[in-house]
Amino acid sequence: MLRITGFEGGNGKLATVPPKTPQARPRVGRARAFARSWERAERGRGVYWEFPRMSASLPIPTKKLTASDLLLRGFFHDRIIPPLSSASLAPAIPDLLTFAAQDFREVNGRRIPNVTSRCSRHSVPKQKLSRRILAMPNPRNQALLALEVEANWDDLLKRCQLSDISLTTPTTIGKRAVQGEIDRRSEASARAERSVGQRYVLHADIARFYPSIYTHSIPWAIHGKTKARADGKNALYGNRLDLLIRSTQDKQTGGIPVGPDTSFLLAEVIASSIDYRLESAVGNLKGTRYIDDYHLYFPSRANAEQTLAELHRIAGEFELEINGLKTQIEELPEPIDPYWKTQLRIVTIYESDHATSLKAIFDRAAELARDFPRDSVFTYLVKKLETALDRVKLQEKEWEALDTLLLRVAVAEPGALPFILRIFELHERNPVGLKEALESICLHHASLQQSSEIAWALWIAKRLSISLSGEVSNAIETVDDDIVALVALELYSIGRLPHPQHGFDLWAHYMSPEHLYSDHWLLAYEALEQRWLPSQDGRDYIAGDAYFGLLKKFNVKFYDTSADVEEPDSGYNDEDENDKDEDEELSETEEISVFDSDNSLFPDVSPEPPASVPPPGRIEDI
Prior knowledge:
By secondary structure, this protein is of the alpha+beta class. The protein is built from 24 helices and 15 strands.
């Protein structure tokens, strides 16, 4: 029998457990496959695990989630431009956490935070025609939340492990502080495996999951609704989590911030509680849930309909709704991947004519993009093309043709900009027409206040030393977004962006002490510390603030102006944006598929595995 060996409870003692016990969270069928990606992830962090590639005992490192991890590696979302980072908090962490532990006052027998704040917000494309608002919580209030999560990590993890269908059970093994144990690319194999022997699939998801979470439902999921409501003194840690997450968003109970790892963890606690109740109601449940996306399998349509009714009921108990537009019951077998992905994977690059092959690939993608207007077809193509170009040697004329194709994609689908930048930097390209494309992106999206596209265009201008016009400067100074403001101010400071017509008046308005706790805290702190904008009254309001003065003392910067910031490559997954690139070798053939590295239902490279878990305990009020 396969047995899994790991460090028990984070105390450094080796323990071996049978795979059917709760400690052996990875299914036996997955356990060996985890070894390879585990080893790679740990090596990337400077930790080396030595074990046979396919051994019967796998050492599973246990790492307790800490407040330091959450602040340093779980603060900014990966889809924000690379210079935004919380890494410079590191030397200040001991002092910041000491400050946070005392940053409360007592009111009617309850400890409440001394201050509340708002999240800085940043709009990114979700799918081609929809948006997602990312949130960057004020670090002062986020530190309080991080400490509470650290103190209760073991119990939070147990509650996430109540679900037998979740693919996003939290693990601390990866580049993020905490992330799901399975990435989206491996979801297909899990779905295929669990659908065997069934005749129908129920596909459903929770409507606007993070933005619609009622913060009071966090303690309901942990302690039960009756017990949580009876706790008037916040003696229960679930109620404290509710209070602290509200303190990051001006006391609002509607929604949780999209971006920080704390939100991923607390959302998983709620979703796992729904899963547990659903299985208790309908019996043996076969299928998967990835964050909020369900694929459940049944022998009959009647079983699927009964389960859907229960799912609606249980989600409603947490003030959540099932998305009716995406709910379907279909007869198996179902397509594992969307049609457009399957079609793109069969396109090849011919050694005899690279240029014609590349044009054919982009033409096929254009046809598919018209047929599937809500999907990011070109972004997927460029991500996969990035890997293929490592294996194909293009001549200069072929590169010029590809440059043109990529610039057309950049304007039509700016979600591909991070991957286009990587191609240009890796292959030392600075194509003719790049400035025109970047300016077109900035001018178009500034009028729509679509900040992510502008931020990435400005960041590319910095990385590739492109000077932009006064027309662009005048357009982007109207964009009410901290990240756009910071990258634009840096470009202005290095002479790549002219002075705008109104002199950055909108952003200058936020240079005052009250905005250190508003939804523009990032700009109010960073622009003054970087000396890009003066304070409104000429005084250093950062030095006068107890918390931000501490950041100033340790020279903390959230915007890294260095020239060698790397693009993010993390396991943090965000629906529809999760196709990872692999490094599988190709045999030398006359033709190369752009998608050979993702053309297998059961890929060789596995997701990063979960950490081993604490011993099972009593789960109350469920």
